[in-house]
Design a protein that fits this description.
six-stranded antiparallel β-sheet; four-stranded antiparallel β-sheet; 5 domains; 27 helices; elongated; SAND domain; about 625 residues; alpha+beta; 17 strands
Length: about 625
């Protein structure tokens, strides 16, 4: 049975009335009009008249008048209209029609069933029948004036063409140096000219969004994205975001959430703000999709003729192309460049509040402490043991109560009946909020799956964790990360103090857990990922100054593949990263300071992990 049979005639007609403008904005509507003609819904003469039009504006106007004529003259055939335009061959050609069909099928069309009363009386059928001809007269007058101007300037006039649906005259030919504009998919906007709006909130894009990546345009299916399936429709084929990014030639960015955009806004921002949801991948309840992009930047430097290292161009190591375009960096910020993470305290207990997770005092586990994610109320109860806390005043951000951030709209409290995924979270969603939404090691938010530790909030990509997490391990009831394994081992083990030489000369197979812990600690502390990846593709003339490049990911690969024999070899490579940093960035105090901080962290933790005696370390 046709699903449209479950909708009554008035609903279909009302829906048609509200969507005439949307359908008139379809790109290249001739196939659409041919379908209507083939089903005898519009007369041949009207089809020929509209299909001959060359101007895009005239074509839109002609399609709208045709639909208006159909509504006025043949309302009894409205069911046949929707049945014929919802055929697969037609909706694959026009994504807008797919949106309309989905809107009818899921019931979301009811937003437009209640219309204001008509203020002005309806025109008679006779006057309505003249609307199209009146528009033609106006256009004919306009074209006549243009013809006179051409004659006055000495150009040859096109005497035979007095309507926008005829062949264009000489004045419409391209001038030297002009480029013909490429045809672009046109999506209807409910806003007036000059107004701005977020199209991902428009009802017509409830199920599908127009997206771009480079020069390619496609349609993103929200449901498929949430389910982790191929969700981007391009040239009648479905692609994953990563595949579409590759197709657009943007794979070098390594982060489709930045390179794929909707109305100029990266998908990562829409996911972070709750407008889109990236679903979990197959592989068990411990595996979930990374939701939010990380802010990753580095500095590209060069030398002048005298050999002095100079700061060159800011470049993003992950999330943009190597040329360092600023537009990708802009995509990492909220509107107005507002912050996303805030350091908060309550009675001496510290944490970080993440704006993307914040909904209210009880909804959304938005505050991350060392060992858990909490809602604001849970954070106050944990810190002060209050049963009915005033979380807006008890939690402070940089000396100011949280209510101050709410009053100035830096944070937005969701309404009581809000239906977003944070406020209406089910049991599985609440369980999902207990872990980080990005990889602890690489800070990445790409299309790879994350595995969640059952003992702490950390999440990892399977190949970012040390050791790598195999699929077979995820079938077990519990999985805990190296941090938690190391912590449990330290609590039940006592080690004698060692001298530095004795510690580094040990076989690494006996100290593999300690080395894995130290390297993961460095990766997690490198928030901007300056030292994680190979710097040569991003920093000019790097190889000319640094003979032996080294980076954290390379050390991790060597550690994973058993390339080190002793602890000393591992330590030597880690220290090489810092020495290269100090040598190459001697003119960049910011990067130098980051390198010193990471080196100090490594040295201090190494002493603790290997029980290095204090007198030996100072000697």
């Amino acid at each position: 049975m046709d699903p449209l049979d479950f909708l009554d005639h008035e609903e279909l007609l009302q829906f048609f009335h509200c969507k005439k403008t949307t359908m008139s904005c379809m790109e290249n509507p001739r196939i659409f009009l041919s379908q209507l003609k083939d089903h005898r819904l519009i007369p041949d003469d009207r089809f020929k008249k509209v299909s001959r039009m060359k101007s895009k504006e005239n074509l839109k106007r002609g399609v709208y008048e045709t639909l208006d004529w159909l509504e006025r003259e043949r309302p009894e055939h409205i069911h046949r209209f929707w049945s014929c335009v919802f055929q697969d061959t037609i909706i694959n050609e026009y994504p807008i029609l797919r949106e309309l069909r989905n809107s009818l099928m899921d019931g979301s069309f009811h937003f437009c069933t209640k219309l204001p009363e008509v203020v002005e009386s309806e025109q008679t059928n006779e006057n309505n029948g003249k609307e199209l001809s009146n528009e033609e007269d106006e256009e004919e007058t306009h074209l006549s004036s243009r013809t006179k101007k051409r004659k006055a300037s000495g150009k040859e006039a096109d005497e035979g063409g007095n309507h926008g649906d005829e062949q264009p005259g000489p004045s419409l030919k391209l001038k030297p140096g002009q480029r013909k504009r490429s045809k672009r998919i046109c999506f209807s906007s409910p806003l007036k000219k000059g107004e701005k709006g977020d199209i991902w909130n428009w009802p017509m894009f409830k199920l599908q969004l127009p997206v771009t990546c480079g020069d390619l345009e496609a349609a993103l299916n929200r449901t498929r994205l949430a389910e982790g399936e191929k969700c981007i429709l391009f040239q009648k084929q479905w692609f994953t975001p990563a595949e579409f990014e590759t197709r657009a030639g943007k794979r070098s960015s390594g982060n489709w959430r930045l390179s794929i955009r909707c109305s100029g806004v990266p998908l990562g921002n829409l996911i972070q703000e709750g407008h889109l949801r990236a679903g979990e991948q197959a592989g068990g309840s411990k595996v979930k999709k990374s939701l939010f992009p990380s802010e990753v930047f580095t500095v590209c430097e060069d030398e002048d003729d005298e050999g002095n290292v100079q700061e060159d161009q800011a470049s993003s190591r992950e999330g943009s192309t190597p040329d360092g375009r600023e537009e990708e960096a802009e995509g990492q910020k909220d509107a107005g460049g507002s912050r996303k993470v805030f350091k908060v305290t309550c009675d001496g207990v510290t944490g970080t509040l993440h704006k993307s997770r914040f909904a209210s005092g009880t909804c959304g586990k938005s505050i991350r402490t060392e060992m858990s994610w909490m809602s604001p109320v849970e954070f106050v109860e944990e810190a002060s043991n209050q049963t009915k806390p005033d979380w807006e005043r008890d939690i402070e951000c940089e000396g100011r109560p949280l209510c101050a951030l709410i009053d100035e709209n830096t944070l937005e409290v969701h309404p009581l009946l809000c239906g977003c995924r944070l406020c209406q979270a089910d049991e599985s969603e609440l369980e999902n909020q207990k872990n980080d939404d990005e990889c602890f090691a690489c800070k990445g938010a790409d299309d790879r799956k994350l595995v969640e530790c059952d003992a702490c909030p950390r999440s990892f990509h399977q190949r970012c964790h040390l050791p790598h997490v195999e699929d077979s391990i995820l079938r077990d009831d519990k999985w805990i990360c190296t941090f938690c394994v190391f912590k449990n081992m330290q609590e039940c083990r006592y080690s004698d103090e060692l001298e530095m030489e004795a510690a580094t000369s040990q076989q690494i197979s006996q100290r593999m857990l300690e080395c894995q812990y130290l390297l993961l600690l460095l990766l997690g502390a490198d928030e901007e990922q300056f030292f994680a990846e190979d710097p040569r593709p991003y920093l000019k003339k790097y190889s000319a100054h640094i003979r032996t490049p080294m980076w954290f990911v390379k050390v991790a690969d060597k550690l994973q593949n058993g390339k080190y024999q002793t602890v000393e070899e591992f330590v030597s490579d880690v220290q090489l990263i810092f020495s290269n940093c100090f040598k190459y960035n001697r003119g960049n105090t910011e990067i130098l300071e980051l390198g010193r901080q990471l080196q100090q962290l490594f040295d201090e933790e190494f002493k603790k992990v290997f029980s290095i005696s204090e007198w030996t370390a100072d000697s």
